[in-house]
Task: inverse folding
């Protein structure tokens, strides 16, 4: 019986060793892609929001920029707990407002077309979905 | 008793693998459909101001969807493994109780 118990324990330990695939996928697949999305699209949208004066209540432009930098650093670090510490909800709204502000500008003034704005908004929304997924476990 | 335990676990693992295969296939299909949808969108906005930005954005959109699907698949694998462990422990507990 002792051998059977040990065998069962060994099987369970082997299974537990691979039962953290979700955490690994978040850290090795999701976070690097989110970091890329942040640096190529979302950070620029946040900056557009700051330039347009679309700031959250009781926050300065410097604070929003600091939060944006903190998000980039958190994603680059691969530490999910650092990502949790950044106020994504506020940054998300600034980014969406920034995209809308650019869509209202003429092309000569740095404006973007409506379809382009939709692509940028989709990035913010996809980032949001993955942000939730990232912090689930 | 050990052979019975191994056989029971083997059946559970086989069932898990079959179910996981279906999950992975489902995720891949959804991801491909999303990529096609985004490409279609790009094709309708050629020439708009900032089109280059849209190209970059859609590239990361598809990459994020693929990474998200990978996470979903990994979570499904974890759930199946935890279920198998629970099943294995139940089988083991019954075996030990009858020993």
Result:
């Amino acid at each position: 019986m002792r051998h059977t118990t040990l065998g069962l324990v060994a099987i369970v330990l082997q299974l537990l060793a691979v039962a953290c695939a979700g955490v690994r996928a978040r850290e090795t697949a999701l976070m690097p892609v989110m970091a890329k999305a942040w640096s190529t699209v979302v950070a620029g949208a946040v900056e557009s929001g700051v330039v347009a004066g679309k700031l959250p209540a009781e926050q300065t432009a410097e604070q929003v920029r600091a939060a944006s930098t903190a998000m980039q650093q958190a994603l680059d670090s691969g530490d999910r707990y650092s990502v949790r510490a950044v106020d994504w909800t506020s940054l998300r709204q600034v980014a969406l407002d920034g995209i809308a502000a650019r869509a209202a500008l003429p092309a000569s003034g740095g404006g973007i077309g409506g379809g382009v704005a939709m692509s940028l908004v989709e990035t913010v929304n996809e980032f949001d979905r993955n942000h939730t997924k990232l912090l689930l476990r | 008793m050990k052979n019975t335990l191994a056989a029971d676990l083997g059946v559970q693992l086989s069932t898990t693998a079959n179910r996981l295969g279906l999950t992975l296939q489902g995720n891949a299909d959804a991801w491909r459909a999303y990529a096609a949808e985004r490409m279609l969108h790009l094709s309708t906005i050629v020439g708009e101001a900032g089109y280059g930005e849209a190209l970059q954005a859609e590239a990361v959109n598809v990459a994020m969807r693929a990474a998200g699907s990978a996470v979903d698949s990994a979570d499904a694998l974890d759930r199946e493994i935890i279920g198998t462990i629970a099943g294995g422990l139940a089988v083991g507990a019954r075996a030990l109780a009858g020993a």
Summary: The two ends of chain A are 37 Å apart (CA to CA).
